[in-house]
Amino acid sequence: MKKISILLSLTFTCLSTIFAQTLINKIEPTSNYDIAYEEWQLDNGLTLIIHEDHSDPIVHVEMTYHVGSNREQIGMTGFAHFFEHMMFQGSDNVADEEHFKIVSESGGTLNGTTNRDRTNYFETLPSNQLETALWLEADRMGFFLDAVTKKKFENQRNAVKNEKSQNQLNVPYGMIFEVTDQVLYPKGHPYSWPTIGYVDDLDRVTVNELKDFFLRWYGPNNAYLVISGDVDPSNVLELVNKYFGSIPRGQEVRNLRKEKVILAQNKYKKFADRIYFPLASFVYPTVPNYHRDEPAIDALADIMGGGNNSPFYKSFVKTEKAVDATVGHPCSELAGEFKINVVSYPNFTFAETEEEVSKLINDFEKYITDEALDRFKSKMRSNIIDGLSSVRGKASQLTSWAYLLDEPYNFSKEIERYQAITKEDVVRVYKKYIKNKNSVVIDYYPLPPGSEDSVQSINPYANVPFQKDPQYDGLTYNKPVDNFDRSARPVPGPAKSVTVPVYFEKNISSLESDYNIPVIGAESNEVPKVYILMTLEGGDLLISDDIKKAGLPQLTATMLNEGTKNYSTEEISSMLDDLGSSINFTSNSRTSSIFVTSLVGNLDQTIEILKEKLFMPGFKTDDFKRVNKQYRESINNSKKSGNNMAREAMSKLLYGKTIRGVSPSVKGIEKLKLSDVEDFYKKQYNPSLASIVVVGDVSEEAILPQLSFLNDWKGEKVSFSKKLPVEEINGKTIYVVHKPGPQSIIVLGHHALKYDTEGEYFRANVMNFVFGGAFNSRLNLNLREDKGFTYGIGSGFNGSENDGVFQIQSSVRSEATDSALTEIYKEMNNYITNGITESELEFTKSAIINSDALKYETALQKSRFLSRIQRYGLDRDYTKRQKEIINNITVDEINALAKKYIDQNNHVVVVVGNKYALKKSLAKFGKVEELKIK
Amino acid sequence: MNKSIILALTVFASFSLYAQKSNVQNAYKSLKKDKIAEAIEYIELAANNESTSNDVKMHNYRGEIYFEVHSNSEYKELDKMAILKCANSWQAMFNHPKVSKWYNEDQINSNITKAGVGLFNKGVELYSIKDFDNAKLMYNKIFDLIPLDKNNNLNRSNVTKESVHFNLYYACIAQGDLVGAKENLQVLIDESYQDPLIYSYMSEIYQKQGDNDKALDVIKEGREYFDTNVDLIISELNFYLGSEDFVKAEELLKLAVQEDPNNAQLFLALGSSYDVLDNYEKAEESYKEAVDIDPSSFDANYGLGGLYYNKAVEMFDKANDISDFKKADNLMKKAEVIMLKSLPYMEVCYKINPDDKTILTVLKALYYRNGDDVKYKEVSEKL
How far is A748 from A809, CA to CA, in rounded Å? Predict the structure, then answer.
C-alpha cells in the first residue's frame, strides 16, 4: 500500500511575510513510478504544488487557471483563449512583449495553452531563474488590467483570427472538432462552441467585457501553481508568498455541472472541406475525466482501433477500404467522447463506411479478450511512464490531478486505475455506452475538384442577441498592496553549471565484414525506459542516380514496419503492444532510421523483435500492394495541404531535377516493384552505413551485449555521393502556387551554409536569432504583434554536411500577402543595412547561453545531443567552445554575417495562395511566375 | 360506326393525348427557363388529365417544379403547400411500374430524401408560425416516405419516424390536443426512444388529466431506462414532496446530488417544494444552494428573493393583527430585515429580466423601504 500522509490545517508561516499557507498534502513516493510532492494553499486560495527533482538544473513553473472555453457563453466565445494571448502583452511592471524577452534571455522557454477546461501559462528555465518566473506570473495575475490597452487588444484580436484561419480553416480536417461539438452538445452546453471561438464573437467583444472575464475567473482562488524541478520547497514557499500572497482572492468559483449528453437518435451532419480522403466520424457521448468507467472505455477504444492488430485496422486498412481507421476516447472535465474515425479512400462511400462500422460495433463483443486487454494495459503503463520523463510532463500531470480530483494522487495510482480493469468491465461499458447507442455521425467530405468555395466556420448562435451574464456585473479590480517594490525585476542568483551527459563510445564489430558499427550511449534513469536510435546513412541519397524512384526509401521503411518472414503485421504489432514497446522505421533525404522504445524490463524481448524486423523482413506481396496504394493516395492527399505544396515548390526551385528537388509522384510510386524495395533494403540496411545511439535506464555493460546480435549483420560496403548539385539562384523571382483559402503561405529562401558547430554556420544562426529565430524577433514583432498579418513568422539557417539553406516562412492573411512581403523585405533590408543593436546582441548571448541548461533533460534530448556528437565527430567540449564563441561575438561580426548570408537580391519566394488575387499584387516585388505542383 | 368518324376520333384522341403530353414537356421546359408559374399551369393541366395523370415523367416534373417552389425563396409565395404536392408526386413516381425505365435508382431515392427533408423543415417552419394543423399534415406525410427510403438517407438527414413523432407531439400539445400528444409519446415510449423527456412529458399530461398515479408510474418507467437521469429524478422528487413523503424524497435527492452535484435545478425544485409546504428554513437552505451553484439563475434568485419577500409580507400581516404595539413593532422590525434580504436576489432578476412587472413592483417596495430614491424612481418609471 502506498503511504500517503495527509496533514490538514498545518500552518506554515514564512518569516519574511505576513502571509500564511496551509499544507494540504505531503505525498511520499511508495513505488518507482511515484513522485514526491507537496500541495499547499495560500490564504487567498491559490493552490501551490511543489515537486523537487534535482536531476537537471532547471525548473518548470506552470500556472493553470481553472477557466477554459467552458466558462464562456453564447455570444462571448473564445474569451479564455483570447486571454492566453493578452496575458503575454505585459502588466504593470512588465512591459509589452517583455515576458517573452525576459524568459528567452534567461535561457527559458515559455508558452500558454487553452482548452475547454483550463488555461495554462508555463515557463521552463534554468533553476536560478525561479524568482523571475514567479515575479512574471504574479504580475500578470495581480497587475494585469491597467496594462490592457486598445491597441494591444486589437493586435491580439487579429492574432487570434489569424490563428483560427491558419490552424483551422486552412488545414485539411481543421474543422472536424468544431463541427462535431456543434452537433454533439446541446445548445448552450459549455463544450458546444470551439475553444478558439467564433470570429463574429471575437469581433463583437469589447475590452471591458474581456476585463470582466478576467476579474471573474483569474483570481488566485481559481488558480493552480505547480513548480517542478531543481528547487528547495521552503524557498519556493517564501517566494510564492512574497509574490502571490498579497493578491486578493477573486469571486468564488464553483465547479461546472457535468450535464450528461443524451442523443435520442443518431445525429448526422455533412461538412465539405479541402481534403482528399473523406472522413466518416462516429462520436458517442461518454463520461468525464476520472469517471469510474473511463479506464474501461479507454480500453474498449484501444481494443477496437488502437493499432495494426485492431479489428478496425483489419476491416478497413488491411482491406484497402480506408487509409486510416482509429478509435479513441478523449475525455474532458465535463464529458467524454468515444470517437471512431475512418478516413476512407475516395471510392469507398460514406454509406458503405457507415454500414461496415455499424456491423463491427454490433458484433464487437467477441473481440474483447483478456489478451487484447493485457496489450492495452502494457501500452497504457508505458504511456503513463512517459509522463515522468520531464519536469514539464510531471507538472502538467500534477495540475490535472489538483483541479480534477479531490484526493491525493500519484502515478502508481494512475497505473493501478488501468491495471484493475477486467474483461467484464470492458464488456459492460461496451453495452452501456456504445452497442445500440446513438452517436453523432459526421460525413466530412471533399469539396469538388476545382471548387473555389471557401471552408467556413459558422456560428450557429450568430443571430442570438448577446445577453450579458449578471455574474459579470459589479466586479471590481483590487490591486494588491505590497511592502516591496515589484517594479524591480528579481536578480537571479548564480546559474548552476550545466554538465553535458556522461556518455560512452564503443564499436560493434561485424564478424562477417570489416565494419564497425559505432555506438554512443548515456545512462539516464529518470524513467525505466530505453531508447535506441539506429541511423543508416543514405536515405534519398542512395537513389540520387535514379530520381524516378523518388519515394523508394520511404516505401521501404514503411514495408519494414509491416510483418516479417515469421510473423504477420498484426502479430508483430501485438507482440510490441504486449511489451509496451515500439519499433519504427523511417527514411528522409539523407538517412534511414530505426527508433526503438522499450520498458527496461522488456528490453530483451524488444531486441528480439528488432532483430526479426531488421533481418527477416516479410516483404509480402499483399502488404506491398496495400502500402503502395496508401503511399500513392497520401501523395494525392498532400496536395490539399498548403504547407506541403510550399515545401514541394521550394525543393523544386532550390534543387531542380535532383533527388532533393523532385517529390514522389503517384505514377512513380505505382511503377515501383517489390523487387525495388528488396534491392533498396539490401543497399540501405547495411552495417557499413549504421550507427547507434542508446539512452535510457541501462548501463553500457548491460546494453552492449544486447546489441551483440549485430555482429552477425552481413552486407557489402556501400558507397554513395553525399554531395548533390543545386539550382543556381540569380535575381529574385516570386512563384505563385494556386490554392485559394483564407491564408497565403510565404516562403523566401536561398542556398546558404553547410552545417558546422563552431564556424560560419553556427555563427550565422546566432546572427539570425533576433532577426527571425525567437518569438520576439524583429520579423515576429513586426508582422504578428504590430501589423497583425500572421499568427507567427520565423527564419533560420538549416544545413547538412554538404550544403544548406536560409529560409523565412509564414502563413499570412490572404488579403495582407503583399503587405506582409513588403514588411519582410523591409526587415531584411534594415537588418542587413543597419545591423544588430548592442542590446539585441546582449539578449541573443544571454538567451542562447542560458538555454544550455534545458538541453539535456529528457532521454530524447540526450539522444539528439549524442547523435550530433557521433554524426559530426565532435568531442564533449564542443558546447563549451560554442559558448565562448557566443560570448566573444561582436556587433561587427554579426553585421558582417548578416550582409554575407542573408541575400536580399538573389532568392526565390514561393507564395501558396489565390493566384488571381496574388499575381498582380506581387508584381511590384519582381518577376512573378505561376508554379504548378503536379 | 362510320370508318371516317372512327379515324377522326382516333386523330382527335391522339391529338388530345399529344396535347397533354406536350403539357408535360412544356412544364419541364418552363421549369428549365425558371418560368415557374407557367410550369405549374402546364403541369396541373397534365396532372388533371386522365391520359397523363399517371405518367411517370409527369410525376417527376411535378415533383421538381413544386420542389423548386418550396426551396427557392423567390417562388415560395406561389404555393405554400408546395412540398406536400412535391412529396405526393415523387411518391407516385417511386411507385410507378415504369419508373426504372426512365430514371435511375439514385435519382428516385434522392427525390424521396429531398421531399422528406423538405416536409420536415416545412413542418418546423409552420410550427414556428403556429400553423399547427398544416405542420401536422407535413409531418404525417413523412410516414409515407420513410418506407421508401431504401438507402437510409432520410435517417442520415436526421428525419426519422421518432423525430417526426416527437414533432407531432409538440404540435398536438401546442393545440391542447392531449389525446394526440399522448398517442405520439406512447409510440416513442414503445419504441424505446432514447430521450428521458418523453417520460416527463407523458407524466405531465397525466397530471393535467388528474391521474397522478399514472403520472408517477410513467416517471418510474422512464427511470428504468435512465436510472440516473436528473430530470426524471426531479420529476419523481416532486411527486414525493407533493405527497409529503420526505423519506423517499431525501433518498432520491441524495442519488441526484451524487450524480449531479452542481445542478442548481435540483435544489431549486427542492426549495420550491419546501416553499409550497411552508417549510421556510429548509426552503431557504435549498434556494441558497441553488443560488450558490448558479448565481445567474433567474429562477434561483427569484425563488430565494421571493421567499424572503413573502415571509416578510406574512410577518407584516401578522404584526398588523397584534394589538400589543410593542410586540407588533418588534415583529415589524424583524420583517423589515427579512424583506430587505430579498433585495440583492431581486436585483439579479431585474438585470436578467428588466421588464418583469412583478420584479419591478417588488423592487419599488424595497427601494422605498431602504430609501434608495434614485433606484425607486428608475423602477417606478418603468412600471
Answer: 6
